[in-house]
Write a structure and sequence with these properties.
Elements lengths: L1 H14 L6 H8 L3 H7 L3 H25 L3 H11 L1 H12 L4 H26 L3 H18 L7 H20 L5
Helix pairs in contact: 1-2, 1-4, 1-6, 4-7, 6-7, 7-8, 8-9
Length: about 180
Amino acid sequence: MQTWVEEGYAIFSLEGPSSIQVERVARSLGKNKSGFYYFFKDRERFVDCLMSEHLGRLNSITRQIREIQYFDPEYIDLLIEHREAFLFQIQLLRNREVGLFENISDQFSAKISAAVIPVWSDYLDASIEVANRLWSMTREAISSRATKDSFTFGWLLDVVSEAKLIASCQSSQTVAC
């Protein structure tokens, strides 16, 4: 069963929910569709298992975030290490018109935000309030611009550097920024 979930999770991460078709997942695993129905009653149950997998990964990632001391490079390295989970999250955000996806996405975002804000605030050299606002903006920028190919350390560093620039401009109150 876990093999089906892992394969479905990988497909969803890269291509989104419309790619989660029984035949597609079975073909990708080199198995027949009856194997799918042995473990899952229908596609809806399978998607529920994918959401549970995502929340399970969230718990592991959140624990790891709480152990880091520096946003750069530790958090960015963590994003790369858990690239599949973050790409899955981006697919949820892009398809949040589906109530289940919005709910799971909100849970994921809230837990990650709560864990990362302290090191993000330090990275920006900004107050928690400013860090929260810039985190929301940065998360949206990543979600709207990320692709499987662009999701690299350098690209992520470029995106978060934009927020750092904004924070430094705000703290210095300089018009030149």
